[in-house]
């Protein structure tokens, strides 16, 4: 094999490795999404068995995090990636941390669903389901943006986080009123509050992932700036 | 300069860069610790001005995260670290994410302290102060373990997280009782609950950082395993 062929061979193998690590992130993301979905279903339908399933499958998410993390270390040590490749690896390292935390939220909601399954249901569950749909959709779109390296879609997720926060604030207010109506509602009200809070955090993690995607594609770090500032950056970069 | 001297020169410069990034993490950690401490003080003393200060200085923490992250990318691209050096950089990347989230908690507690400052004080503040001390101490020890690459100390932090969790559970139960006694306590009780929850999360982040330290020093990933399993690993590695 001459030098050029060897180089090409190495770069093909490297590309295959990067492709593989990307796919593994998407598989992990898919599992986390599924767990969140099942945990919400379990909660709103009072289905303890489903809650148990959602909670129990978190160990798989944790295992995936560790193995992808190892793979990233290996790539960094062996391939010494630069530019976009390096940003991709950095994005993966950060994204899986957020995905793992989302997995923890699914586990938590699953466990609360078990607790709440044999208690009287609240009419607040409709709002919780709505919040759950928003949070899951945000996560799905963030992973989609990662898969397609789609800055526009990532920006939609960043902007959309306000909607989840508003839904959370509204639900919190309703729950406080509900608890004030009858002190016997307090314990259950607080459990539902934790679920709402967990979903709000899922939205935050989706936003984090979306911000990493913008960084990966444009090479600009857009954390801790307003959506308007990010859009300025996107405009500048794509002009 | 001959080849050997050049190599030595490059490696000295590289060591200086690694040392610099380590110091920056410790500076960031120190600031986060200070913010957490001030936020707790603000809360238990009903000091709105101090709460405002703790909340406002979070932007500095965010800026530090971004700049250390950039420095890590630069080191990865230019120096292509391996083995312990690579693990150090990976540990830094993960540690600053956790520190940034702790900074968010300090901001949150600071804001809640402002809210609560002009309301009647609860006698639950003693327990909150105790939790705050535990959480701050855990964070301090985790950063110390990072600075000294001290696996034993890191393990203490990992084991100690249960104590924070227990304090949190006890406080939550007390708060529910307090809210049940008088519905007018509910809103305030929930605010205090959020503070307790934030402190419990600070403990989790300290534990995460301690686990990264074990990984950095031993090259073993100890997340998602029990403290007993970690101790086995430590024994094996130091035998």
UniProtKB/TrEMBL annotation, chains A, B:
Homodimer. Pfam families: PhoU. This is Phosphate-specific transport system accessory protein PhoU. GO terms for biological process: intracellular phosphate ion homeostasis; negative regulation of phosphate metabolic process; phosphate ion transport. Keywords: Cytoplasm, Phosphate transport, Transport. Plays a role in the regulation of phosphate uptake. Belongs to the PhoU family. It comes from Acidihalobacter prosperus. GO terms for cellular component: cytoplasm. It is found in: Cytoplasm. The keyword Cytoplasm applies. Residues 26-112, 129-213 form the PhoU domain. InterPro entries: PhoU, PhoU-like_sf, PhoU_dom.
């Amino acid at each position: 094999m001459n030098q050029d062929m060897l180089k090409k061979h190495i770069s093909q193998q490297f590309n295959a490795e990067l492709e593989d690590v990307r796919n593994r992130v998407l598989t992990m993301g898919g599992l986390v999404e599924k767990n969140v979905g099942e945990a919400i279903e379990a909660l709103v339908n009072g289905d303890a068995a489903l809650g148990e399933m959602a909670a129990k499958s978190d160990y798989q998410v944790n295992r995936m995090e560790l193995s992808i993390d190892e793979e990233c270390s290996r790539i960094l040590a062996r391939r010494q990636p630069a530019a976009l490749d390096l940003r991709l690896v950095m994005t993966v390292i950060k994204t899986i941390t957020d995905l793992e935390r989302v997995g923890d939220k699914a586990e938590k909601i699953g466990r609360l669903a078990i607790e709440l399954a044999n208690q009287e249901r609240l009419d607040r569950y409709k709002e919780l389901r709505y919040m759950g749909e928003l949070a899951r959709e945000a996560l799905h779109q963030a992973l989609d943006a990662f898969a397609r390296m789609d800055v526009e879609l990532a920006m939609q997720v960043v902007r959309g986080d306000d909607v989840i926060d508003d839904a959370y604030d509204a639900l919190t207010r309703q729950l406080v009123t509900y608890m004030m109506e009858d002190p016997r509602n307090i314990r259950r009200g607080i459990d539902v509050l934790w679920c709402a809070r967990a979903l709000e955090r899922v939205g935050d993690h989706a936003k984090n992932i979306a911000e990493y995607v913008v960084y990966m594609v444009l090479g600009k770090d857009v954390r801790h700036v307003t959506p308007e500032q990010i859009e300025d950056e996107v405009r500048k970069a794509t002009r």
